[in-house]
Structures are given as C-alpha cells and as structure tokens.
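Slide 14.
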Amino acid sequence: MRNMERIGSLIGSILFGALTIGTVTIGSAQAGSQTWSDVSDYAQYVPLAFALGETAYNEDFEGLIQLTVAGALTLGTTEFLKSEIDAKRPNYRPGDGQNSFPSGHVAKAWFAAAYTQQRYGCYQLTWDCWRGSAIPYLAAGVTAYGRVAADKHHWEDVLASAVISETFVYLTTDTFNEDMIITPSFDNGFGIAILKRF
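Slide 15: predicted structure.
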C-alpha cells in the first residue's frame, strides 16, 4: 500500500510540475533570452532554500542526509549524462560547449522541490498536501521554462532533468516521521542519537 501511495506521489509530482511549466509558458511575458537566462540562474536556488529551510525547521537530520543523497545522485547523473551525450544547445555556435542534455539548472531546482514534497507533503491531491512544495515547484517550473526561453536547452533536456530528479528523490527519500528523530549527538564525543516517541 505504501509503495502505491509513493508511486501516486511521484506521478502527482510530475503532473504538478508539468502544469507549472504549462502555466508559466502560457502566462509569461515576452522577455528576451538574456532576461530568461538571468531568471533561471537565480530561480534554480529557490527550491533548495525551501528544502533546507523546511529541514532545519523540523530539526530533521535524517532528512538532511536524504536531501544530500538525492542531490548527489541527481546532479552526478546529470553531469555524467551531459559529458556522455553529445547534444547541442539550441544557441550552439562552433567553439561553444554543447552539453545540452539534460539540464543541470533544472536538476538542481527540481530535486529540491521533489524532496520537499516527498519528505513533508502527503499523497492526496489536496492543497494541504502540496502547499509546502508549491513555491519550490513553481520556481523549478520557471527555471525549466527560462532555460528553454533563453535558448540554453530543448524541452526534452528540461523534462529529462525533472524525471531524473523525481526518480532519485522517490528512491532515497522517506516521509518525515515526527515520532522518530535521528540527530547528531555531541555528548562525550560525536555520535548519532535516535529518539522515538511511544
């Protein structure tokens, strides 16, 4: 049952992201490619700021480890694929770097948004379940749209990054459990304390 809920969350996350990208695409002003490049350069960090803030607020050391592992796998895979797949950017000129597929900016933004939803959200399609990750997903969608609008990436590049991010978060992140806390301990040296409420 739990796996079906998690798969539902994964599908819901991808659908929410697709709706976000569509909304940003339809409602966006006609900005130049440099403007979109600048916007996506900054927007990519908004989801990570939210994820770190939520993790710190909940004093969630276990979540911090999961965020780190999901990020390392997502970004490592993205960089590996960039180096192995010879995909030219839409604005490619001879002498420029190619490395279009997948998008590193979107991978950075999307994994943090997905982590926030997976760790602190829930599995129903209600506002209460998604409100904590709405802004991170919106920023990830803006990042994705911005990379395409700036001619830095093709749509398949940003969609692949979203799928890679959602997959690694799904595989590495559990739902936050307030009844059990894993935290570093500095009593008599360094260790890990596990606190369970009964």
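Speaker note: The chain is about 65% helix and 5% strand.
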